Input
Amino acid sequence: MESRATNKTRERQLIALYAKREASTLELLTADFGHWPPKGLEIIHPPEGTVRFKPVIASQFQKSTNWKSLNSYQELFLSFFTAGQADARKERDIHIHEVLGLARIFNKSSDYLANTISHEHLHILQWDDYRSSLASSLQNKRYAIVSQLKETDLFLNYLSDECEFQARLHTILVNAYQQHGIMPANNHELWAALLSQGIEIPASLTKQIDQDLLQKFKTDNDFIEFNSDKQAVREINRLTKSLKEENISEFWLDTVPRIYGDMLELYGDKYGSIRMGHSHNVQFRELFYRNARAVHKGKKTPDDAIKDMHDIVYKMTAPDVKTLFDKVSDRSFYADHGDGFIHIPSSIRENVLNIFHEHPHICLPS
Output
């Protein structure tokens, strides 16, 4: 019963923020995890901004999606069956269905409402990433999950969107956090945490998980019954059952860890992708090179870009700084997920190199 009460506190806090019709991202993350920052992470670049909650009605849905081809029946269907929708094209808005919102008054569907708020807020963070860096899960072009499936339908296509998979991963793990009190810090911990919530992990991988980790992220059926995001678990299990046999290992060893590492970086974790075996923090690298591209395209002054690049470099790990310095020194290009290659403009290159040479904790060659 203790675990049940813990998650009910999370639900009440998220719904209370929704009832205010406005909340900061920090308030929402704090309510989601129960405190901030989450244990197991090193938050150094936290997301910022305010979220506004609005109702989902046909006219607002039509306006926010701008799908001019929708007819009135389609609009009515979408507005009736859409639990929530994030719309951050202009503002950071979350639309919650009125019926779901009213259910809280009668103490019904509180878990579903809380998970909907959490899910849509993760989409807001994905939008923030899309606007500030070079690639986002919203673009759905990094891992091509749908190409790993042996069969598809409309719903599987939807679930295979990187942003939708990541949002479900988020709600599953923030619920699991209420039980375990720590976020997974590597592949095996991630598998163990997901396994504890009912996600079906291939036997070939579960055999690799140390028994101590299985105890650390122990399955608690009572917790699953009352606290896990069972809908998200069912949907991810449906997706993974549709994987081609030859893609199962790639999905669990590469795709899922990369999406999770990216999610940690959305939270502002210093080691996000690095925890999952990547060579560097992808978010920081993209923020760095986006500034270079902004100077090249005349969208940012050199002084402003250098200031922002300086701030980013000082948030990186020492190995990350060194490898980035090597690439800048060698005049290497940065590949932007198919959108082209970015280099440091000659007009700011010397100042950029000075950022590294002046770093107090990194010893670099002159």
User: Anything to note?
Assistant: The longest strand covers residues 50-56. DSSP finds 19 helices and six strands in the chain. Strands lie at 22-24, 50-56, 84-87, 93-97, 334-335, 341-342.
